[in-house]
Amino acid sequence: MKGTLAAMRTITAPLVAVVLLLGCWQVAVMVADISPFLLPRPTVIAHSMWSNREVLFDATLSTATAALAGFALAALVGIIGGSVIAAVPVLRRSLYPLATILQMVPLVAVAPLLVIWLGFGLPTAIAASAVVAVFPVLASTIDGLRSVDPGLREVFLLAEAPPWTRWRKLDLPASIPAIVTGLRIAAGLAVIGAIVGEFVSGYGGSRAPLGIVVMTAMREARTELVFGAVALCAVVGFVLFGVVSTLGWLLLRRWHSSAQHELE
Amino acid sequence: MNSAPEVVCEALSRRFPNGVCALDKISFRVPSGGLTAIIGPSGCGKTTLLRIAARLDQSTEGQIRCVSRDGTPMLPRAGQLAVCFQEARLLPWRTALENVALPLELAGVDRAERRMRANRVIHAAGLDGAQQRMPAQLSGGMRMRVALARALVTQPSVLLLDEPCSSVDEFTRMQLDEEIRRLWQASGATTILVTHSVSEAVFLADTIIVMEHGRVHATHTVELPQGGRDRTSLAFSQEVEFIMRTLACAAGVARR
Amino acid sequence: MKSLLITSLILAAGALVSCDAPKQPQSVPIQVQLNWVPEPEFGGIYAALQEGLYAQAGLAVEVIKGGGQVPCAQLVASGQVPFAVVSGEEVLTLRARGGPIVAVFATFQKNPTGFLLHAENPINSLEALWRSDSTIGIDPGLPFVKMLNERYPGGAVKLVPYSGALATFLASPNYAQQCFITSEPVECQLRGIQSKVLSLADVFNPYAAVVATNETFLKEHPDRVDAFVRATAEGWRRYLDAPERYNPAIAALNPSMTLEAMNIAARLERPFIVPEQGERAIGTMSAARWQSLCEQLTATKVIESCGSIDAAFVAAPPAVP
Description:
Chain A has 264 residues and is an all-alpha fold. In chain A, 84% of the residues lie in helices and 0% in strands. Chain A starts with a helix and ends with a helix. Chain B has a six-stranded mixed β-sheet with strand order 6-7-8-3-9-10, with helices on both faces. Chain B has a four-stranded antiparallel β-sheet with strand order 2-1-4-5, covered by helices on one side.
């Protein structure tokens, strides 16, 4: 009972904030008489979203697919790559700085190359998503693995546990708090990456993803539809973030302090 | 009747790369099934000695080895030598039971058997009912009991205890010492206990080695019967007083 | 300190020069936002700048480079810049959404856009292209896509975003992409790649590279708009007469296009810019042309209505004979 109440409070607070914000926006636009092509009213945006619901639904599904696949790829590559890099000192010295530099490469500049390598369509959007999302996972995995308590390592050393066993039973579980943090950052980035990928990678058939809807609406000066599509991008990111956070919480709630405060 | 090996330490030295000499030609032997306490001020080399014995560190010269009862040298396999560290070193994501069972799991013991054996030591360590608790939900004393149970679950023949009670209060320490004595006697393991508590050393050990500056300052045999040592008895106080005097002497030498 | 001294010397010298000029009015700073990087499609503006035509008209014009992602029409409609180069359809579309944008000068009288294909591509008409299964690079949201879909239904073309570069085109023989007559075809020619262009003008023929302002600016400063348009038209006449004289300055601003390419482009664009009435009518627009664009845009439901066509543009003033 108390838990339900607390959960309701956590949901209600941001909801009220959003409603208030939209209300202020609506009133401000009406009072200041701002032209709809500059800043449309929330009601106009909502109406536009409703009348374009089929296009937007398909677009959201496409973008969510690309973002989810990109995120999964980034998680896999980040955790495995991070583990290998953390385990081999030579790689840590040589690859880790390289990965840091790769993070600085602007995706917008790389995206056209991805098209040339992977062709138009979903694969490029997935790759673009994975490219931006992989670094936080990689970095947090490496940091997590490197900060495993050496005392616990000695426990495994005494038991003469082989490296693979130690990774499975000690290093990985001990790094989960750090990895979850990296994954949460990656969730938001994966959506941004997918959208940027879509800007360059196509809109085959009727199922244009959100990135293309944004560009089309911008070109047709449908500012309200731009806002609607951007809001859906945010929703995709928020849902992905929420799923990752919840999974992280489920994994950590029994033992890690980061997951225990959230219940209070 | 006891198959535990004798632990022999021969002219053991450890010099760190920065020039600090932690151990300087230390020699002693712990008889099969015996409990030798090593006592001394902080930084006298006690922990280094234990880490070399556990093969977590290496000596610069000399060695510490195990000799089985028929006189042949033996190299304890994983599980035959167990260490209980100063901190409990439990995996925070595992329950008490899963932590205790960890060494068996790593040794490839099957699920049902390791559950049974872990429950047996948990019972022996007085932890009944705490099996499913997470380390964060346990008190400091209980965490140390879990660590002890984990060290004993493989039925080691050599047991190394590194100040196992240093992080708990005096009251809990007395209870834990009682537990350690019982568990040690039941296991029959040859045991080295590193401590800086004189009363703990007198309560548990049959031999006390006073270390100072990486050397053996004195070796003392505790003339009290194993089994029912009474901390309040006169004989116990006399033993404590004697060790105290030895320590003070060592400290005096250090001051000079 | 030293640089301050030099600066004041230059300023003083400038003051002396301007004293000599006959009755120079105070220059008004004016920005013009381009919708692409400096290229011969903006040749007249750069020629007017180089010849001091704007300065003579009392305008201190600053040209701002653009790119694919710059929302030029929105920038000018919201008053961020007094002038911007946009496309004809952008003017009507934004007006339909309540953007107070007005066209004042139309550079291209005939639509200079089309599709770029490899010369050996068997497709030879827009219809054949649209009914094929080619992959075509097009900016999402361009209105002629809907027109082509309606005119040539049932095709299986795969539309992908236009990258603004040739890399994909060069790599795939069956790929087609939107192009600007002065840009991609010239680049192909210089790289020795045989290409051809399917012009869109027969299907969709709006004014292109339209200089637009916003209603407020037009109302408050009709004299500046007039001066800007006249100077730009004169700039175009001079540019088309001798593009080689002005291209070096443009090439200096755009490292991605060579001087040679710009000279070729200037020759190519001339028939698209000079109207039937001759050079005197450069930049002028007619209500009939705007009306037919409006009909195309409403027919394809890009917009619902155009409002008053006469309010959408200002007929360019005739050139001084």
